[in-house]
Amino acid sequence: MPSYVYILASRKNGTLYTGVTSNLIKRVYEHKEKVFGGFTAEYNVNLLVYYEMHEEISEAILREKRIKKWRRAWKLELIEKENPYWKDLYEQL
After folding, report:
1. Containing H/E element for 48?
2. What does the alpha-carbon distance between residue 63 and residue 81 come to, in Å, rounded to a whole number?
3. Among 4, 6, 13, 60, which is 20 to 30 Å from 23 by CA?
4. In 3-state terms, what secondary structure has residue 27?
5. Could you say which DSSP state residue 74 is in?
6. Rg (CA), the chain
7. Residue 46: what pLDDT?
8. Which CATH number fits the domain that encloses residue 82?
9. What is the side-by-side strand order in the sheet with 47-54?
10. Which domain holds residue 23?
11. What is the pLDDT of residue 48?
């Protein structure tokens, strides 16, 4: 089953959140609707600005952990390489 690593933002160059899921559409919807509260709800982090698919959940978890350790500048570079205008990719899913 495919799994996803994703990055949400509050706005361009705003607060970032990196997560992992096996159901990207459902998970981003939950962030947008503040279903579970927490960090993303508190800081209004709900724009899907980056995601990547992995064949195995273990690969996605490893990638998520690596990205979370990155410097902010590296995360911004990753986002802007694929999504230079910081569009909400949720609309395209």
Report:
1. strand 47-54
2. 17
3. 13
4. helix
5. H
6. 12
7. 97
8. 3.40.1440.10
9. 16-21, 3-9, 47-54
10. 3-92
11. 98
At residue 9, the pLDDT reads 98
Q: Which residue has the tokens 């159901």?
A: 23
With a CB cutoff of 8 Å and minimum separation 6, the contacts of 29 are 35, 90
Residues 6+ apart with CB under 8 A from 39: 17, 45
Report the C-alpha gap between 60 and 88 in whole angstroms: 21
Cα–Cα–Cα angle for 63, 68, 70, rounded to 5 degrees: 100
Q: Name the domain count of the chain.
A: 1
